[in-house]
Amino acid sequence: MHELSLYRATLGAEFDRLALVLQRHYDIESGHSVVIEGELTAWNRFPMLRLFAPFLPKQQKNVPVTATLRSVHDRVGRVCLEWTREFSYKSGLVKSVSIQEPPPSPLVVPSILEKFVQRYRPNVGLTLMLDPSTDGGALATVSVGPQYVITGPLMRRLPGLARLRVDAAETAINATEFYTDTAVSHPLLGRLFGYSGRLHLRS
User: Fold this and answer.
1) Taking the complete model, does pTM exceed 0.90, yes or no?
2) Candidates 3.10.450, 2.60.120, 2.40.128, 1.20.120; correct CATH number of 6-201?
3) What is the tens place of the pLDDT at every residue in 27-60?
4) What average pLDDT does range 104-124 have in this prediction?
């Protein structure tokens, strides 16, 4: 039986309305991967946060970036998506890893759970809504629903003031390129960090 990719399974018929580059970006069969490259402008209003989360981006324009998306299975056999992001600064590589999977409690809106990995283990989980534009030319990803602190097998819900706001969008340019824009904010501190720029799928 053919396994559906995470994004195709989550969006259902709406996935087929997405622009070709967005479908190629996310419709990854089990055991396969996709590599994305380009340059992004990264910003970070609170560089001190990197003391606790060294995978956060440093502020700089035209940072070479490579992202590898790989289809994987979790312990119970569900299809998930592993992200490895690498920002190449002159001072060294800033790398982050996250795992996207079906949420523990499905929401009414199409959603996934993204777990951010630090020291080889997930430590924070954010529920994200997938929201395609009417014409399919863009895919927005917005934080919605529960967020978690993860300790081993335990997931505890974060209270309101500890929750983050994620606003991300990818907009198709052509069959191999898209524009990405991501911003992460806090209810009291405001905008924290993010990045934007043009990326392309490696052929």
Assistant:
1) yes
2) 2.40.128
3) 998 889 999 999 999 999 999 988 888 889 999 9
4) 87
| Domain range list for the chain | 6-201
Cα angle 43-46-48, degrees, rounded to a multiple of 5: 120
- Single out the residue of 203, 4, 195, 5 nearest to residue 85, CA to CA: 195
What average pLDDT does this structure show over 127-136?
A: 97
Confidence of residue 105 (pLDDT cuts 50, 70, 90): confident
Question: Per residue, what are the HEC states of the chain?
Answer: CCCCCHHHHHHHHHHHHCCHHHHHHHCCCCCCEEEEEEEEEEEECCHHHHHCCCCCCCCEEEEEEEEEEEEEECCCCCEEEEEEEEEEECCEEEEEEEEEECCCCCCCCCEEEEEEEECCEEEEEEEEEEEECCCCCEEEEEEEEEEEEEECCEEEECCHHHCCEEEEEEEECCCCEEEEEEEEEECCCEEEEEEEEEEEECC
pLDDT, residue 36, reads: 98
- Residue 180 contacts residue 194 (beta carbons within 8 Å): no
Residue 81 CB neighbour total at 10 angstroms? 21
